[in-house]
Inverse folding.
């Protein structure tokens, strides 16, 4: 999903910065507030960030398009802390990759943050909250929310490229199909793996730090009691 | 342990789709999708040149790049393992 350095012409790279910067600012505000009100949440925040570090470094092969791509790892942070804080964590990873790995870029940081750090996590967050209200099984919910976020991230990247590079015949829609064929199709098996790994790490959070899930309003006490009951 | 089994099966299925792809097309290199997108851009707009580049560190080759990716994963795994281990030990001590 990394749009390479210099590969978004004006005005698109500015537009995506304009989208991302306010969310990152809000995320920093939220993160500051959270950390000063609940210091005990810092280790979990670090784990969520570290999870993005690990998953986004894994380039996994996909037989759908015979190419490789990577999961995003943002689902965990989105479910625990919401999309704005996730955007801050995402931008850290994207900066590391842009500065040290020549993956992505500074001029495309706004666009890459919008897809991986904001819109994908936002999808995960909305799905998780809605399905949680409807009473879906916690792990299935995490799995689906994260897999959907992964797909959404890559669809956004496809759209970003399609808007910047409309095809001469067929325009933006035709370009979108071409990019989505590469990105979204490749992601299908990766989205499943990412969903599964995120569900697993959330299980360990339930095991070792379940009271924090209630504090962060990720689970109600009743829902948590039910999950813990099923564990024993 | 039920969830662990399901995740294990999903990972096996993932490996299976990889080997299936490899069996169909033994010459496949599984190159990056990001690079494939670059080719599509070249197809849509053959004259497009990246207008900006080279501000960060560019790994001189595949070896250094894989070093930095491994470092990224190692940092992440270290943090997760340390904190989860810390909590687990603390829970057991109580």
């Amino acid at each position: 999903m990394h749009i390479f350095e210099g590969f978004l012409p004006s005005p698109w790279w500015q537009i995506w910065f304009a989208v991302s910067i306010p969310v990152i600012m809000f995320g920093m505000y939220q993160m500051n507030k959270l950390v000063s009100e609940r210091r005990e949440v810092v280790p979990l925040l670090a784990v969520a960030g570290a999870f993005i570090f690990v998953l986004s470094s894994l380039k996994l092969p996909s037989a759908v398009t015979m190419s490789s791509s990577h999961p995003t790892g943002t689902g965990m942070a989105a479910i625990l802390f919401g999309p704005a804080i996730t955007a801050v964590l995402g931008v850290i990873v994207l900066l590391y990759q842009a500065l040290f790995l020549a993956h992505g870029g500074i001029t495309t940081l706004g666009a890459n943050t919008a897809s991986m750090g904001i819109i994908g996590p936002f999808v995960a967050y909305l799905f998780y909250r809605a399905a949680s209200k409807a009473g879906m099984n916690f792990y299935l919910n995490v799995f689906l929310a994260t897999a959907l976020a992964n797909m959404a991230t890559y669809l956004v990247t496809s759209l970003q490229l399609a808007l910047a590079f409309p095809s001469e015949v067929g325009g933006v829609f035709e370009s979108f199909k071409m990019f989505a064929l590469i990105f979204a199709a490749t992601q299908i098996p990766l989205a499943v793996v990412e969903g599964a790994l995120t569900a697993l790490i959330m299980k360990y959070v339930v095991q070792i730090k379940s009271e924090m899930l209630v504090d962060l309003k990720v689970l109600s006490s009743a829902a948590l009691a039910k999950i813990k009951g099923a564990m024993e | 342990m039920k969830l662990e089994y399901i995740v294990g099966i999903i990972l096996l299925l993932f490996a299976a789709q990889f080997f299936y792809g490899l069996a169909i097309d033994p010459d496949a290199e599984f190159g990056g999708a990001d690079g494939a997108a670059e080719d599509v851009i070249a197809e849509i707009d053959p004259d497009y040149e990246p207008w900006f580049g080279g501000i960060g560190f560019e790994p001189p080759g595949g070896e250094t790049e894989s070093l930095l990716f491994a470092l990224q994963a190692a940092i992440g795994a270290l943090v997760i393992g340390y904190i989860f281990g810390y909590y687990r030990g603390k829970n057991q001590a109580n």
